[in-house]
Structure formats: structure tokens, C-alpha cells
Specification:
nine-stranded mixed sheet; two-stranded antiparallel sheet; 11 strands
Length: 243
């Protein structure tokens, strides 16, 4: 790949009314993002409340923006099934982490019962931990974390996933500078690549200690041709992080 697609994660730790989610999604879509992930359901959110959030966001961004939903391992199999069926109308990119990724049996149960693609895997470090998910054909997409697994291991996981028709969407929640650069380099060599995670609201967090941060344009990052990962850290500015 010469460029890597990214999706915008608009995570918030707090509950908000549907219009607030819709306003954020509208702002993100206006920046050129065509894929957005959100968290409309928490352990305390009712099905109707979550559906109302998704409906507001979907209406606000329109058909040109695809949505994904992360359940953040809050659900039981019964609740996950109920939620998935309630939101089938939104034709999601995927439903993420209804349970822990170590629960391959429940993943397979849910995958067989729902229409949406199912995604998991951010806490699994190596290809060995993904084996059961692949062999059970329990998911459609996996998201190994770039900072947990690293470039070579993610590429190995992707190669292992490909014969099972499973795509790979690198999880990237730790750094929009170094982590994103590493995920882009990993993604260049992955044929079964799904979009890389990106947090637009955190992207400038390391700009005072790092130069060369890769920029997103129209929902994609062009693979850099500069040496290494393409980013450079200021050792002097980094001293404040010393422990």
C-alpha cells in the first residue's frame, strides 16, 4: 500500500446526549474522515439509549461515513446479541470487543448469530494468542496493538489471519506520533489490511517533543519515504518524562 486508511476514534469517558455525539461526528467528518468509531453503549446504557446515539450520528454524517461500535468488553453473550440485532439497521463496519478476546467460544457464538463483522484482539500480544480465534473462525477482523505486538509480529499475525479471510486493523491508542508511524509501516506490507485506529483529538499531544508526525488527509496517511519510522524525538524535551 502507498497510503494507509485510518478511522477516527471519538472515544469519550463520559456519557453524552445523542446530539453531542452527532456534533462531534459531524466535526470529524468535516475533516475528511470517512470512518468513525464510537462507544454508544456502556454497562449502564440501555439498548434504546445506545440506538438513539447511533441514529443521531448516522443521520448527522450520512451514508458517506461508515461507523463502527466498540462495546469495550462490557457485554454478556445475551446482551451483545440483543445490542447487535438492535443496531443491524446501521450497517456497521464492525462490532468490537463484546467480550474479552480470550473468550473465543463466545465470539464464535455471537459471530454465527449476527450480521455485522466482529472484531477483537487488542490485548493479545503474539500470533500464538490469536490461534484459537482463527481456528474457530470466531471473528472477521482482528486488531493487534502496534505498541504491544510491534511491526514484525503484527505482520506475522496478518499472514496467519489471511488464509482464514480475516482482516487486520492495527490498534493504536498509545501515540498518534510514534505509534501511528509504526502502524503505517506495518500496514504497508499487509494485504488483508483494515483501517488503522487514529485519535484526531490526541494527534498533537507529542508535537512539543516530536517532529515529523504523519498527517491524515481524506482519511488516509501516505506512507513516508524518510528514514526509519519518519519521526524524530527531541531528547532534551523528553527529559521531563524521565522516572
Amino acid at each position: 500500500h502507498e497510503s494507509i486508511p485510518v478511522y477516527a476514534n471519538i472515544y469519550t469517558p463520559n456519557s453524552h446526549p445523542p446530539k453531542a455525539y452527532a456534533d462531534v461526528a459531524t466535526y470529524i467528518a468535516a475533516q475528511g474522515y470517512t470512518q468513525i468509531k464510537l462507544y454508544p453503549f456502556t454497562s449502564k446504557t440501555t439498548v434504546d439509549e445506545g440506538v438513539a446515539i447511533l441514529e443521531a450520528v448516522n443521520d448527522a454524517v450520512g451514508a458517506d461515513v461508515d461507523l463502527a461500535v466498540d462495546l469495550w468488553r462490557h457485554a454478556s453473550p445475551a446482551r451483545a446479541l440483543k445490542l447487535a440485532r438492535a443496531i443491524e439497521q446501521f450497517d456497521l463496519m464492525w462490532l468490537e470487543d463484546p467480550f474479552a478476546p480470550t473468550d473465543a467460544a463466545s465470539m464464535r457464538y455471537l459471530r454465527d448469530a449476527i450480521e455485522q463483522p466482529l472484531l477483537t484482539g487488542e490485548t493479545l500480544p503474539t500470533r500464538r494468542e490469536f490461534t484459537e480465534l482463527f481456528e474457530r473462525r470466531a471473528v472477521d477482523i482482528v486488531n493487534p496493538d502496534i505498541c504491544l505486538s510491534g511491526i514484525l509480529e503484527i505482520q506475522a499475525i496478518a499472514a496467519m489471519a489471511e488464509p482464514f479471510y480475516i482482516a487486520v486493523s492495527p490498534h493504536n491508542s498509545n501515540s498518534m506520533a510514534l505509534g501511528t508511524a509504526a502502524a503505517v509501516h506495518a500496514g504497508v506490507g499487509i494485504p488483508n489490511l483494515a483501517p488503522v485506529e487514529y485519535f484526531p483529538f490526541f494527534e498533537t499531544a507529542l508535537d512539543d517533543v516530536c517532529s515529523g508526525r504523519l498527517s491524515v488527509k481524506a482519511g488516509k496517511i501516505v506512507a513516508p519515504e524518510t528514514p526509519g519510522l519518519g519521526v524524530t524525538f527531541d531528547d532534551g524535551a523528553m527529559t521531563r518524562f524521565r522516572v
